[in-house]
DNA sequence: TTGTATACTAAACAGTGTTTAGTATATTTG
DNA sequence: CAAATATACTAAACACTGTTTAGTATACAA
Protein backbone atom coordinates (compact mmCIF):
# COMPACT_ATOMS: atom_id res chain seq x y z
CA UNK A 1 0.00 0.00 0.00
CA UNK A 2 1.40 3.39 -1.13
CA UNK A 3 -0.10 5.26 1.78
CA UNK A 4 2.10 3.79 4.49
CA UNK A 5 5.11 4.44 2.29
CA UNK A 6 4.15 8.06 1.75
CA UNK A 7 3.71 8.49 5.52
CA UNK A 8 7.08 6.97 6.14
CA UNK A 9 8.69 9.16 3.50
CA UNK A 10 7.12 12.26 5.04
CA UNK A 11 8.41 11.24 8.46
CA UNK A 12 11.90 10.83 7.01
CA UNK A 13 11.59 14.18 5.29
CA UNK A 14 10.79 16.02 8.51
CA UNK A 15 13.63 14.23 10.26
CA UNK A 16 15.91 15.44 7.50
CA UNK A 17 14.51 18.95 7.82
CA UNK A 18 15.35 18.95 11.52
CA UNK A 19 18.88 17.79 10.78
CA UNK A 20 19.39 20.36 8.06
CA UNK A 21 18.09 23.13 10.30
CA UNK A 22 20.39 21.95 13.09
CA UNK A 23 23.33 21.98 10.70
CA UNK A 24 22.47 25.45 9.43
CA UNK A 25 22.15 26.87 12.95
CA UNK A 26 25.37 25.23 14.15
CA UNK A 27 27.29 26.66 11.19
CA UNK A 28 25.84 30.12 11.85
CA UNK A 29 25.93 30.28 15.65
CA UNK A 30 28.31 27.50 16.70
CA UNK A 31 27.55 24.42 18.74
CA UNK A 32 26.82 26.54 21.81
CA UNK A 33 24.24 28.51 19.86
CA UNK A 34 22.38 25.44 18.66
CA UNK A 35 19.17 24.87 20.61
CA UNK A 36 16.06 22.75 20.20
CA UNK A 37 13.93 25.86 20.26
CA UNK A 38 15.93 27.49 17.45
CA UNK A 39 15.57 24.37 15.34
CA UNK A 40 11.84 24.29 16.06
CA UNK A 41 11.52 27.93 15.12
CA UNK A 42 13.45 27.42 11.90
CA UNK A 43 11.35 24.52 10.67
CA UNK A 44 8.15 26.16 11.97
CA UNK A 45 7.16 23.36 14.32
CA UNK A 46 6.92 23.33 18.09
CA UNK A 47 9.92 22.19 20.18
CA UNK A 48 8.00 19.15 21.38
CA UNK A 49 7.64 17.87 17.81
CA UNK A 50 11.39 17.41 17.56
CA UNK A 51 11.19 14.84 20.35
CA UNK A 52 8.90 12.73 18.15
CA UNK A 53 11.77 12.37 15.68
CA UNK A 54 14.80 12.33 18.00
CA UNK A 55 15.17 10.87 21.49
CA UNK A 56 17.04 13.93 22.72
CA UNK A 57 19.43 16.65 21.63
CA UNK A 58 22.38 14.25 21.87
CA UNK A 59 20.85 12.08 19.18
CA UNK A 60 20.73 15.08 16.85
CA UNK A 61 24.34 15.92 17.66
CA UNK A 62 25.28 12.32 16.99
CA UNK A 63 23.76 12.43 13.52
CA UNK A 64 25.50 15.73 12.86
CA UNK A 65 28.75 14.06 13.96
CA UNK A 66 28.24 11.38 11.32
CA UNK A 67 27.76 14.11 8.71
CA UNK A 68 31.04 15.49 9.99
CA UNK A 69 32.84 12.26 9.17
CA UNK A 70 31.45 12.41 5.64
CA UNK A 71 32.83 15.94 5.37
CA UNK A 72 36.20 14.79 6.68
CA UNK A 73 36.35 11.94 4.19
CA UNK A 74 36.32 14.51 1.41
CA UNK A 75 39.44 16.09 2.88
CA UNK A 76 41.02 12.63 3.03
CA UNK A 77 40.33 11.21 -0.43
CA UNK A 78 43.64 12.29 -1.95
CA UNK A 79 45.58 11.06 1.09
CA UNK A 80 43.83 7.70 1.18
CA UNK A 81 44.67 7.13 -2.47
CA UNK A 82 48.42 7.71 -2.01
CA UNK A 83 50.45 4.58 -2.66
CA UNK A 84 53.50 5.21 -0.48
CA UNK A 85 52.77 4.60 3.20
CA UNK A 86 55.04 7.32 4.61
CA UNK A 87 53.82 9.87 2.11
CA UNK A 88 50.27 8.76 2.95
CA UNK A 89 50.89 9.57 6.60
CA UNK A 90 52.11 13.04 5.64
CA UNK A 91 49.02 13.66 3.54
CA UNK A 92 46.68 12.31 6.20
CA UNK A 93 48.28 14.60 8.78
CA UNK A 94 47.90 17.64 6.57
CA UNK A 95 44.32 16.81 5.63
CA UNK A 96 43.41 16.14 9.27
CA UNK A 97 44.73 19.49 10.39
CA UNK A 98 43.14 21.34 7.50
CA UNK A 99 39.80 19.77 8.28
CA UNK A 100 40.17 20.55 11.98
CA UNK A 101 41.11 24.18 11.46
CA UNK A 102 38.44 24.84 8.85
CA UNK A 103 35.59 23.05 10.62
CA UNK A 104 35.82 23.78 14.33
CA UNK A 105 32.26 22.81 15.21
CA UNK A 106 32.28 19.59 13.21
CA UNK A 107 35.66 18.67 14.64
CA UNK A 108 34.50 19.28 18.19
CA UNK A 109 31.52 17.03 17.69
CA UNK A 110 33.69 14.24 16.30
CA UNK A 111 36.79 14.36 18.47
CA UNK A 112 36.17 16.41 21.57
CA UNK A 113 32.58 16.61 22.72
CA UNK A 114 31.30 13.71 24.74
CA UNK A 115 27.72 14.78 24.11
CA UNK A 116 27.03 12.68 21.02
CA UNK A 117 27.93 9.55 23.01
CA UNK A 118 26.58 9.63 26.51
CA UNK A 119 25.61 5.99 26.51
CA UNK A 120 28.99 4.54 27.37
CA UNK A 121 28.10 0.97 26.52
CA UNK A 122 27.07 2.07 23.03
CA UNK A 123 29.86 4.52 22.32
CA UNK A 124 32.06 2.05 20.43
CA UNK A 125 29.44 1.60 17.74
CA UNK A 126 28.48 5.27 17.95
CA UNK A 127 31.99 6.13 16.92
CA UNK A 128 32.57 3.42 14.34
CA UNK A 129 33.55 5.92 11.65
CA UNK A 130 36.26 7.28 13.94
CA UNK A 131 37.48 3.78 14.70
CA UNK A 132 37.68 2.98 11.01
CA UNK A 133 39.81 6.04 10.44
CA UNK A 134 42.10 5.09 13.31
CA UNK A 135 42.42 1.53 12.03
CA UNK A 136 43.28 2.82 8.58
CA UNK A 137 45.98 5.03 10.08
CA UNK A 138 47.31 2.13 12.14
CA UNK A 139 47.53 -0.06 9.04
CA UNK A 140 49.39 2.67 7.21
CA UNK A 141 51.73 2.89 10.19
CA UNK A 142 52.39 -0.84 9.99
CA UNK A 143 53.36 -0.45 6.33
CA UNK A 144 55.63 2.46 7.17
CA UNK A 145 57.27 0.62 10.06
CA UNK A 146 58.06 -2.31 7.81
CA UNK A 147 59.29 -0.22 4.91
CA UNK A 148 61.60 1.96 7.01
CA UNK A 149 62.29 -0.79 9.59
CA UNK A 150 61.62 1.66 12.39
CA UNK A 151 62.46 0.90 15.99
CA UNK A 152 58.81 1.42 16.91
CA UNK A 153 57.28 -2.02 16.64
CA UNK A 154 53.68 -1.36 17.66
CA UNK A 155 51.74 0.32 14.86
CA UNK A 156 48.83 1.22 17.14
CA UNK A 157 51.15 3.10 19.49
CA UNK A 158 52.61 4.98 16.54
CA UNK A 159 49.12 5.74 15.24
CA UNK A 160 48.10 7.07 18.64
CA UNK A 161 51.27 9.14 18.76
CA UNK A 162 50.49 10.72 15.38
CA UNK A 163 46.85 11.24 16.25
CA UNK A 164 47.69 12.88 19.59
CA UNK A 165 50.02 15.33 17.90
CA UNK A 166 47.59 16.52 15.27
CA UNK A 167 44.66 16.46 17.67
CA UNK A 168 46.66 18.49 20.16
CA UNK A 169 47.61 21.02 17.50
CA UNK A 170 44.03 21.44 16.33
CA UNK A 171 42.70 21.73 19.88
CA UNK A 172 45.35 24.27 20.90
CA UNK A 173 44.48 26.27 17.80
CA UNK A 174 40.75 26.14 18.56
CA UNK A 175 41.20 27.24 22.16
CA UNK A 176 43.49 30.08 20.99
CA UNK A 177 46.33 28.86 23.19
CA UNK A 178 48.70 28.88 20.20
CA UNK A 179 47.71 32.45 19.39
CA UNK A 180 48.53 33.37 22.99
CA UNK A 181 52.03 31.90 23.20
CA UNK A 182 52.95 32.84 19.63
CA UNK A 183 50.75 35.60 18.23
CA UNK A 184 50.03 36.29 14.56
CA UNK A 185 51.54 33.25 12.91
CA UNK A 186 49.20 30.41 13.76
CA UNK A 187 48.92 28.96 10.26
CA UNK A 188 52.63 28.77 9.47
CA UNK A 189 53.47 27.65 13.01
CA UNK A 190 51.11 24.72 12.77
CA UNK A 191 52.52 23.64 9.42
CA UNK A 192 56.06 23.86 10.77
CA UNK A 193 55.16 21.89 13.87
CA UNK A 194 53.43 19.16 11.89
CA UNK A 195 56.47 18.95 9.68
CA UNK A 196 58.87 18.80 12.61
CA UNK A 197 56.81 16.07 14.18
CA UNK A 198 56.78 13.90 11.06
CA UNK A 199 60.49 14.48 10.47
CA UNK A 200 61.20 13.36 14.05
CA UNK A 201 59.49 10.07 13.42
CA UNK A 202 60.30 9.19 9.83
CA UNK A 203 63.27 11.24 8.73
CA UNK A 204 66.14 9.84 10.70
CA UNK B 1 41.13 53.73 60.98
CA UNK B 2 40.63 50.01 61.69
CA UNK B 3 37.05 50.04 60.54
CA UNK B 4 37.72 50.43 56.85
CA UNK B 5 40.33 47.71 57.08
CA UNK B 6 37.93 45.33 58.77
CA UNK B 7 35.35 46.03 56.07
CA UNK B 8 37.88 45.35 53.40
CA UNK B 9 38.98 42.13 55.07
CA UNK B 10 35.39 40.99 55.32
CA UNK B 11 34.87 41.73 51.63
CA UNK B 12 37.95 39.68 50.79
CA UNK B 13 36.74 36.89 53.02
CA UNK B 14 33.41 36.60 51.24
CA UNK B 15 35.16 36.65 47.88
CA UNK B 16 37.31 33.78 49.10
CA UNK B 17 34.23 31.94 50.34
CA UNK B 18 32.67 32.21 46.87
CA UNK B 19 35.83 30.86 45.29
CA UNK B 20 36.10 27.98 47.74
CA UNK B 21 32.45 27.08 47.21
CA UNK B 22 32.95 27.21 43.44
CA UNK B 23 35.97 24.94 43.75
CA UNK B 24 34.09 22.49 45.96
CA UNK B 25 31.13 22.31 43.59
CA UNK B 26 33.32 21.90 40.52
CA UNK B 27 35.22 19.04 42.13
CA UNK B 28 31.96 17.35 43.11
CA UNK B 29 29.80 17.97 40.02
CA UNK B 30 32.28 18.92 37.30
CA UNK B 31 32.55 22.20 35.43
CA UNK B 32 29.15 21.61 33.79
CA UNK B 33 27.55 21.22 37.21
CA UNK B 34 28.95 24.48 38.55
CA UNK B 35 26.35 27.24 38.62
CA UNK B 36 26.03 30.64 40.24
CA UNK B 37 22.89 29.50 42.02
CA UNK B 38 24.64 26.48 43.52
CA UNK B 39 27.46 28.68 44.78
CA UNK B 40 24.93 31.11 46.23
CA UNK B 41 23.09 28.29 47.92
CA UNK B 42 26.29 26.86 49.36
CA UNK B 43 27.47 30.11 50.93
CA UNK B 44 23.89 31.00 51.95
CA UNK B 45 23.69 34.26 50.03
CA UNK B 46 21.48 35.21 47.11
CA UNK B 47 22.76 34.72 43.54
CA UNK B 48 22.79 38.49 43.00
CA UNK B 49 25.31 38.94 45.82
CA UNK B 50 27.92 37.04 43.85
CA UNK B 51 27.80 39.74 41.20
CA UNK B 52 28.92 42.26 43.80
CA UNK B 53 32.18 40.34 44.13
CA UNK B 54 32.69 39.04 40.59
CA UNK B 55 31.88 40.68 37.25
CA UNK B 56 30.46 37.44 35.85
CA UNK B 57 30.84 33.67 35.97
CA UNK B 58 33.86 33.83 33.68
CA UNK B 59 35.74 35.87 36.24
CA UNK B 60 35.15 33.11 38.79
CA UNK B 61 36.32 30.48 36.31
CA UNK B 62 39.39 32.58 35.60
CA UNK B 63 40.35 32.68 39.27
CA UNK B 64 39.77 28.93 39.50
CA UNK B 65 42.04 28.51 36.48
CA UNK B 66 44.79 30.35 38.32
CA UNK B 67 44.35 27.98 41.26
CA UNK B 68 44.72 25.19 38.70
CA UNK B 69 48.14 26.46 37.70
CA UNK B 70 49.21 26.44 41.35
CA UNK B 71 48.06 22.83 41.55
CA UNK B 72 49.97 21.98 38.39
CA UNK B 73 53.13 23.58 39.71
CA UNK B 74 53.14 21.02 42.50
CA UNK B 75 53.21 18.23 39.92
CA UNK B 76 56.10 20.01 38.20
CA UNK B 77 58.46 20.80 41.09
CA UNK B 78 60.57 17.67 40.70
CA UNK B 79 60.76 18.09 36.91
CA UNK B 80 61.69 21.78 37.11
CA UNK B 81 64.54 20.96 39.47
CA UNK B 82 66.12 18.38 37.15
CA UNK B 83 69.52 19.45 35.90
CA UNK B 84 69.72 17.61 32.59
CA UNK B 85 67.63 19.28 29.89
CA UNK B 86 66.55 16.12 28.08
CA UNK B 87 65.69 14.35 31.30
CA UNK B 88 63.83 17.49 32.35
CA UNK B 89 61.68 17.25 29.22
CA UNK B 90 60.86 13.63 30.05
CA UNK B 91 59.85 14.55 33.58
CA UNK B 92 57.80 17.56 32.46
CA UNK B 93 55.96 15.37 29.96
CA UNK B 94 55.15 12.76 32.59
CA UNK B 95 54.08 15.35 35.16
CA UNK B 96 51.95 17.17 32.59
CA UNK B 97 50.09 14.01 31.63
CA UNK B 98 49.65 12.92 35.25
CA UNK B 99 48.22 16.30 36.13
CA UNK B 100 45.94 16.25 33.11
CA UNK B 101 44.60 12.77 33.76
CA UNK B 102 44.08 13.30 37.48
CA UNK B 103 42.52 16.76 37.26
CA UNK B 104 40.16 16.81 34.29
CA UNK B 105 38.18 19.88 35.35
CA UNK B 106 41.21 21.95 36.28
CA UNK B 107 42.94 20.94 33.07
CA UNK B 108 39.94 21.90 30.96
CA UNK B 109 39.81 25.33 32.56
CA UNK B 110 43.51 25.90 31.89
CA UNK B 111 44.04 24.41 28.45
CA UNK B 112 40.75 23.84 26.72
CA UNK B 113 37.90 26.05 27.82
CA UNK B 114 37.75 29.49 26.28
CA UNK B 115 35.40 30.67 28.99
CA UNK B 116 37.96 32.06 31.43
CA UNK B 117 39.25 34.37 28.66
CA UNK B 118 36.45 35.80 26.60
CA UNK B 119 38.02 39.23 26.39
CA UNK B 120 40.39 38.53 23.53
CA UNK B 121 42.48 41.64 23.94
CA UNK B 122 43.16 40.71 27.56
CA UNK B 123 43.75 36.99 27.12
CA UNK B 124 47.54 37.20 26.91
CA UNK B 125 47.77 38.56 30.45
CA UNK B 126 44.91 36.33 31.56
CA UNK B 127 47.02 33.35 30.63
CA UNK B 128 50.40 34.57 31.83
CA UNK B 129 50.95 31.48 33.97
CA UNK B 130 50.47 29.28 30.93
CA UNK B 131 52.83 31.43 28.90
CA UNK B 132 55.47 31.18 31.60
CA UNK B 133 55.22 27.40 31.52
CA UNK B 134 55.52 27.37 27.74
CA UNK B 135 58.54 29.67 27.85
CA UNK B 136 60.17 27.44 30.42
CA UNK B 137 59.60 24.42 28.19
CA UNK B 138 60.95 26.31 25.18
CA UNK B 139 64.10 27.23 27.11
CA UNK B 140 64.58 23.63 28.13
CA UNK B 141 64.16 22.67 24.47
CA UNK B 142 66.87 25.13 23.51
CA UNK B 143 69.24 23.50 25.98
CA UNK B 144 68.36 20.06 24.67
CA UNK B 145 68.82 21.11 21.04
CA UNK B 146 72.25 22.47 21.83
CA UNK B 147 73.34 19.51 23.92
CA UNK B 148 72.23 16.88 21.40
CA UNK B 149 72.84 19.12 18.36
CA UNK B 150 69.44 18.20 16.99
CA UNK B 151 68.38 19.01 13.45
CA UNK B 152 65.44 20.98 14.83
CA UNK B 153 66.75 24.52 15.17
CA UNK B 154 63.70 26.37 16.48
CA UNK B 155 63.12 25.64 20.16
CA UNK B 156 59.64 27.14 20.11
CA UNK B 157 58.56 24.79 17.34
CA UNK B 158 59.93 21.86 19.32
CA UNK B 159 58.16 23.08 22.44
CA UNK B 160 54.89 23.36 20.54
CA UNK B 161 55.44 19.89 19.13
CA UNK B 162 55.91 18.43 22.61
CA UNK B 163 53.00 20.37 24.02
CA UNK B 164 50.67 19.30 21.20
CA UNK B 165 51.50 15.65 21.80
CA UNK B 166 50.83 15.63 25.53
CA UNK B 167 47.84 17.93 25.18
CA UNK B 168 46.42 15.68 22.50
CA UNK B 169 46.93 12.60 24.64
CA UNK B 170 45.24 14.16 27.64
CA UNK B 171 42.33 15.46 25.58
CA UNK B 172 41.79 12.13 23.81
CA UNK B 173 41.80 10.45 27.20
CA UNK B 174 39.31 12.93 28.63
CA UNK B 175 36.92 12.55 25.70
CA UNK B 176 37.20 8.74 25.97
CA UNK B 177 38.39 8.45 22.37
CA UNK B 178 41.41 6.40 23.49
CA UNK B 179 39.14 4.06 25.41
CA UNK B 180 37.09 3.61 22.24
CA UNK B 181 39.88 2.71 19.84
CA UNK B 182 41.83 0.68 22.41
CA UNK B 183 39.68 -0.44 25.33
CA UNK B 184 40.88 -1.31 28.84
CA UNK B 185 44.47 -0.19 28.71
CA UNK B 186 44.34 3.57 28.72
CA UNK B 187 46.97 4.14 31.41
CA UNK B 188 49.68 1.91 29.94
CA UNK B 189 48.88 3.01 26.40
CA UNK B 190 49.37 6.65 27.28
CA UNK B 191 52.68 5.96 28.97
CA UNK B 192 53.89 3.94 25.99
CA UNK B 193 52.80 6.67 23.58
CA UNK B 194 54.52 9.41 25.55
CA UNK B 195 57.66 7.29 25.60
CA UNK B 196 57.53 6.57 21.88
CA UNK B 197 57.07 10.26 21.18
CA UNK B 198 60.06 11.31 23.27
CA UNK B 199 62.21 8.54 21.82
CA UNK B 200 61.30 9.73 18.30
CA UNK B 201 62.62 13.17 19.07
CA UNK B 202 65.60 12.62 21.34
CA UNK B 203 66.73 9.02 21.04
CA UNK B 204 68.11 8.76 17.56
C1' DT C 1 18.49 62.50 64.91
C1' DT C 2 18.74 62.82 60.15
C1' DG C 3 20.86 61.53 55.92
C1' DT C 4 23.65 58.87 53.16
C1' DA C 5 26.30 55.01 51.93
C1' DT C 6 26.77 49.91 52.18
C1' DA C 7 25.24 45.17 51.81
C1' DC C 8 22.11 42.45 50.39
C1' DT C 9 18.03 40.25 48.02
C1' DA C 10 13.29 39.24 45.66
C1' DA C 11 11.81 39.07 41.45
C1' DA C 12 12.11 39.33 36.84
C1' DC C 13 14.15 38.59 32.04
C1' DA C 14 15.55 35.73 28.59
C1' DG C 15 17.26 31.74 27.75
C1' DT C 16 18.06 26.26 28.03
C1' DG C 17 16.38 20.76 27.53
C1' DT C 18 12.51 17.98 28.26
C1' DT C 19 7.78 16.09 29.55
C1' DT C 20 2.87 15.89 29.98
C1' DA C 21 -1.59 16.31 28.81
C1' DG C 22 -4.62 17.61 25.47
C1' DT C 23 -6.32 18.82 20.71
C1' DA C 24 -7.21 18.57 16.13
C1' DT C 25 -6.88 15.77 11.94
C1' DA C 26 -6.75 11.62 9.36
C1' DT C 27 -7.51 6.80 8.91
C1' DT C 28 -9.74 2.51 9.98
C1' DT C 29 -13.51 -0.11 11.45
C1' DG C 30 -18.38 -1.44 12.37
C1' DC D 1 -21.81 7.02 6.37
C1' DA D 2 -20.93 7.32 11.47
C1' DA D 3 -18.19 5.98 15.31
C1' DA D 4 -13.81 4.62 17.10
C1' DT D 5 -9.16 4.82 16.92
C1' DA D 6 -4.64 6.06 15.64
C1' DT D 7 -1.51 9.85 14.17
C1' DA D 8 0.61 14.36 14.29
C1' DC D 9 1.19 18.03 16.62
C1' DT D 10 1.40 21.68 20.33
C1' DA D 11 0.56 24.79 24.66
C1' DA D 12 2.09 24.93 28.83
C1' DA D 13 4.66 23.57 32.45
C1' DC D 14 8.95 21.94 35.04
C1' DA D 15 13.36 22.63 36.46
C1' DC D 16 17.15 24.58 35.34
C1' DT D 17 20.79 28.38 33.55
C1' DG D 18 23.35 33.55 33.81
C1' DT D 19 22.34 38.16 34.75
C1' DT D 20 19.99 42.70 35.94
C1' DT D 21 16.98 45.86 38.25
C1' DA D 22 14.77 47.96 41.72
C1' DG D 23 14.05 48.08 46.34
C1' DT D 24 14.96 47.15 51.38
C1' DA D 25 17.10 46.90 55.55
C1' DT D 26 21.22 48.06 58.19
C1' DA D 27 25.34 50.55 59.58
C1' DC D 28 27.89 54.59 59.62
C1' DA D 29 28.67 59.82 59.32
C1' DA D 30 27.12 64.48 59.85
Walk me through the structure.
The structure is a homodimer of 204-residue chains. Chain A is an all-alpha fold and 204 residues long. In chain A, 79% of the residues lie in helices and 0% in strands. In chain A, α5 packs antiparallel against α8. The N and C termini of chain A lie far apart (68 Å). Chains A and B meet through α8, α9, α10 and α11 of A and α8, α9, α10 and α11 of B. Chain A binds a DNA duplex (30 and 30 nucleotides) through α3.
Mean pLDDT of chain A: 93
Largest β sheet strand count, sense and barrel closure of chain A = none
Largest interface, with counts of residues having CB < 8 Å to the other chain, equals: A-B, 47 and 47 residues
Residue share in β-strands of chain A: under 5%
- Cα separation of the termini of chain A: 68 Å
Order of helices and strands of chain A: HHHHHHHHHHH
Secondary-structure-derived class of chain A:
mainly alpha
The global form of chain A is: globular
Query: How many strand units of chain A?
Result: 0
Low-confidence stretches of chain A: none
- Radius of gyration from the alpha-carbon trace of chain A, in angstroms: 20 Å
How many helices of chain A?
A: 11
Percentage of helical residues of chain A?
A: over 70%
Oligomerization status of the protein chains: homodimer
